[in-house]
Write a structure and sequence with these properties.
This protein is mainly β and 309 residues long. It is built from two helices and 19 strands. Strands 4, 9, 11, 12, 13, 15, 16, 18 and 19 form a nine-stranded antiparallel β-sheet that branches.
Length: 309
């Protein structure tokens, strides 16, 4: 298992305190999630600069009525090449589309809870893979922020940390290497029935929670879960990004070369974990980034993903 540099070098904070990054940057452009699989391109109205989100991901079928209460996944960690201003990440999305599917009833904006690893120098000042959390309560329009309320509106603070061992935005080490050891992290997001909040578990540690009041459609349950990779591409012209997704290798390269996520499970209404069935695979830029799913006894439902242009 990969772990955090903070855990290796510091261990933990005193009881009653939590670790926090200092000297954090603010991203200059639309942030992670600010282009979930439902939003692909954003451009500036004052220049030709484009902000493009490329995805290669897998998804459950949309559950109606919403019946997912979380997910668990194991993913290997890489340190991909990332161009300046771009980012590359691997994550899960616990979402509610907000669609009622009922005539004459109100549709809410999409809500999303997101966590995984990310390489993003504009935010973290280096190219190391780092643990992140993110959320939005209105489809990435006005709400949503990284980690411990970075870029949050003062009126809508986000994630609440309780662990004194996990550093949000902290580097994960070591990363996997091609034809060598594969280092993984385990992530679990689940709904706590007593509080109504959505909790995050990183490896063995319960990190904290997203308060239910941040959301509308996601206050109770999720109707869609996704897992995959994303590249955020900042372009001043029509050239293609050189940023890698995952390891930078295509899914067909297989184990020890390509990025993967395995043992995909969802939390059902009875709070038990079940293997995901009927996985849907989507690539928004298949000439560069692709995804290939499968199933096995050891890895359960899984997929390889990634690539480069």
């Amino acid at each position: 298992m990969a772990s955090q540099v903070f855990a290796k070098e510091i261990g933990k904070c005193p009881k009653g305190q939590i670790p926090m990054r200092t000297g954090r940057n603010s991203p200059l452009y639309p942030t992670a999630g600010a282009g979930g699989p439902t939003q692909e391109v954003q451009s500036s109205s004052t220049s030709s600069r484009q902000y493009v989100h490329h995805h290669a991901y897998t998804a459950t079928t949309i559950s109606h009525p919403p019946s997912y209460k979380g997910t668990e996944v194991v993913m290997n960690v890489w340190q991909p090449f990332v161009e300046p201003e771009d980012f590359s990440l691997a994550q899960l999305w616990v979402m509610n589309t907000g669609l009622s599917f009922t005539p004459d009833s109100i549709n809410w904006p999409m809500n999303s809870i997101e966590t995984g690893w990310q390489v993003y120098s504009d935010l973290y000042s280096d190219m190391r893979p780092r643990l992140f959390v993110y959320w939005t309560g209105d489809g990435y329009v006005k709400t949503g922020c990284y980690n411990l309320n970075q870029d949050c509106s003062s009126l809508s603070p986000g994630f609440v940390q309780v662990s004194n061992k996990v550093l949000l935005g902290g580097a994960i080490s070591p990363p996997s290497a091609a034809n060598s050891e594969q280092y993984e992290i385990r992530l679990r997001v689940f709904k706590d029935d007593d509080s109504g909040n959505w909790w995050l578990q990183f490896n063995q540690d319960y990190v904290g929670y997203w308060p239910s009041y941040l959301f509308h459609s996601l206050q109770n349950t999720s109707d869609l879960i996704q897992w995959g990779g994303e590249v955020f591409d900042v372009r001043d012209d029509n050239s293609q990004t050189k940023t890698h997704m995952g390891s930078g290798d295509i899914p067909a390269s297989g184990f020890r070369k390509a990025a993967y996520q395995r043992n995909l499970q969802y939390v059902a209404m009875n709070n038990k974990l079940y293997q995901v069935q009927d996985l849907q695979a989507v690539s928004t830029k298949p000439t560069c980034y692709t995804v290939s799913s499968g199933s096995s006894k050891a890895w359960g439902t899984h997929f390889y993903y990634g690539g480069r242009c």
